[in-house]
Amino acid sequence: MINALATLAGLLSLATTGVAQNGTKPVYAHFMVGIVENFTVEDWKTDIEQAQGIGIDGFALNCAPPRIDDYTPKQLANAYAAAEELDFKMFISFDFAYWSTGDTELIVDFLANYSSSPAQAYYDGGALVSTFVGDSMDWNAVKDALGDQKITAIPMIQDPGSLANPTTGLDGAFSWYAWPTDGGNSVIEGPMTTVWDDKFLENLGEMPYMAPVSPWFFTHFNTKNWVFICEEQPTHRWEQMLKMKPELIEIISWNDFGESHYISGDQPNHSDDGSSAWADGFPHDAWRTLMKPYIAAYKMGAENPQVDEDQLVYWYRPTPWNVECSNDTLGAPRGRELLDDVVFVSTLLTEAAELTVTSGGQDPVTVAVEAGIHTSNFTMGVGVQKFSVSRGGTEILSGEGEMEISDKCESYNYNAYVGSL
Ligand SMILES: *[C@@H]1O[C@H](CO)[C@@H](O)[C@H](O)[C@H]1NC(C)=O
Ligand SMILES: *[C@@H]1O[C@H](CO)[C@@H](O)[C@H](O)[C@H]1NC(C)=O
Ligand SMILES: *[C@@H]1O[C@H](CO)[C@@H](O)[C@H](O)[C@H]1NC(C)=O
Ligand SMILES: *[C@@H]1O[C@H](CO)[C@@H](O)[C@H](O)[C@H]1NC(C)=O
Ligand SMILES: *[C@@H]1O[C@H](CO)[C@@H](O)[C@H](O)[C@H]1NC(C)=O
Ligand SMILES: *[C@@H]1O[C@H](CO)[C@@H](O)[C@H](O)[C@H]1NC(C)=O
Q1: Does the domain made of 15-300 have the CATH classification 3.40.50.880?
Q2: Could you give the angle at which helices 139-146 and 104-114 cross, rounded to 10 degrees?
Q3: Is 73 in the pocket of ligand 2 (CB under 6 A)?
Q4: 101 Cβ closer than 6 Å to some ligand 1 atom
Q5: Distance CA 81, CA 121 (A)
Q6: What reaction is this protein's catalytic activity (predicted)?
Q7: Fewer Cβ in 10 A, N or C end of the chain?
Q8: Measured from the CB, is residue 43 less than 6 Å from ligand 1?
Q9: Which pLDDT belongs to residue 23?
Q10: Cα 82 to ligand 6 centroid, rounded to whole Å
Q11: Ranges of the chain with pLDDT below 70
C-alpha cells in the first residue's frame, strides 16, 4: 500500500511538473569549471550558444571547493549570469575528488545561493544537484538544512547495487560508466553495452536515471594513461539511448579536453592542464552536428533520428594503434591494442546514397547507405582521408580531412580528429 501510494504520488508529481512530457526530456552536458579560471560572462555565453545550437538544455558544473580553486564561486556566478541572459540552465556537480562528505554546510551555502536563480535546472520540483563520486554524501542532511528550498539529488553512484536500499536521501542516480569497462578504469573490448545502465535501472525502480553519453576517451597524463574502446560509440550510444529512454541524459563531456571527450569548440580562453598536447588541432565540433538529431529524437521519445539535410561526419585517429612514438616518456596508453585500425563515417541522409572512402594508400571503397544516420568503417590507410557521397550517379558531398594519418609520431595520441562535409 505504501509503495502503491508512493508510485501514485510519483506519477502525479510527474504530471504536474511536466518532467516527462513529450519533447521536454532534459539533456545536460558535463562542464569542467576547473579549466575556466579566467572565463568572462561572454566566454560562457559563447559556449552556451554552441550547446543550445544542438538542443542541450544546460551544463552540469563540475567544480572543486574554493579551498582548492578560489575562483569556483566567481565562475559559478558567471555561469548562472550568462545562462540567465540566454534562457539556459545550470546545476552544480560537486566533484568529490575534492569535496568531502564533511562539507555539508558549504554545499548547502552553494545550493542556497543559486536555487532561486531562473537559470537553475529543476527536476521533479526540486533544484537539481549532482556529483562526481561522493557516493556516501548525506543528502538528507543537505535537505534538512535547506528546509523548504527543495532539491532533487541525482548524484553519481559507483555501485548500482547500493541503489536497491539507498539511505543517503538521493532522488535518482547518475552513472559514470560511459565507456566499455568491467568497473573502475578497466579497459575491455568494445562496443559499449548497456550492462551498467541495466543495473542502475533495475535497482532504481521508480527513481530517475541520468544516463551518461560520451563519444570518446583518451587520456595521457602521468597519473592516468589509457584509452577506452569507443570507436562507433558517437552514434552507437545514442541509439542505445533512443531505445532505453532514460529520464535524463548527461553528455560526458562539454569541455574535458584531458579525457578527449569534449564536444565544445576549442574554448580559446580555457587554461591548459597539459592536455593541449593531444587536444590542440583535434576539433570535435562535428560530433555536435551528429548529436543534434539524436537529442531531438530522445526528447520526442522517437526511436530514430530525423534527418533534414544530407551531411557526413567522419572521425579517425592520427596513427595506426601499434606505431611506436619516438619521444614519449610516459609510454603507450593502456588498452591501445584493442583498437581497430579503421576510419569511421556517419552519413546523415534524407534518401539512400552511395558512400566512397579512400583512406590513404587503400583502394577506394564504395558502400550503399540507407536514409537516416548510419555509421560505417573502412580499413585505415596512411595518408590523406577522402570522403564522397553520390546519389543517382551525382556527387552530392565530397571532401578530405585536414589531418593526414601518419605512421610516425613523437608522442602517443589516440584522440579523434573529427570533421564534416
Ligand atoms: C577570450 O580571450 C581573448 C583574449 O585572449 C579576448 O579577446 C576575447 O574577448 C575572449 N573571449 C571572450 C568571449 O571573452
Ligand atoms: C553567491 O552568489 C553571488 C552572486 O551570484 C556570488 O557573487 C557569490 O560568490 C556566491 N557565493 C557562493 C558561495 O557561491
Ligand atoms: C588567470 O588570470 C590571472 C591574472 O591575470 C593570471 O595570473 C593567471 O595565470 C590566469 N590563469 C590561467 C589559468 O590562465
Ligand atoms: C512526441 O511528439 C511527436 C511530434 O509531436 C510525435 O511524432 C511523437 O510520436 C511523440 N512521441 C511520443 C512518445 O509521444
Ligand atoms: C622530446 O620532447 C621533449 C619534451 O617535450 C622536447 O623538449 C624535445 O625537444 C623533444 N626531442 C625531440 C628530438 O624532438
Ligand atoms: C566496423 O563495421 C562492421 C560492420 O558493420 C562491424 O561489425 C564492426 O564492429 C565495426 N568496427 C568497429 C571497430 O566498430
Answers
A1: no
A2: 50
A3: yes
A4: no
A5: 13
A6: Endohydrolysis of (1->3)-alpha-D-glucosidic linkages in isolichenin, pseudonigeran and nigeran
A7: N
A8: yes
A9: 78
A10: 42
A11: 1-21
> Residue 369: what pLDDT?
98
Pocket of ligand 3 (CB under 6 A): 37-38, 271
Q: Can you give the pLDDT at residue 21?
A: 61
Distance, CA of 409 to CA of 153 (rounded, Å): 45
Residues of the chain with CATH 3.20.20.80: 15-300
Q: Which residue CA neighbors atom 6 of ligand 1 most closely? A: 269
Minimum-distance ligand 1 atom for the alpha carbon of 46: 13
Grid cell digits, residue 355: 558512400
Task: Give the nearest ligand 5 atom to 327 CA.
Answer: 1
Fold held by 311-420: Immunoglobulin-like (2.60.40)
Is the CB of residue 112 less than 8 Å from the CB of residue 120?
A: no
Domain with CATH 2.60.40 in the chain: 311-420
Instruction: Quote the Cα angle for 371-376-377, to 5°.
Output: 165
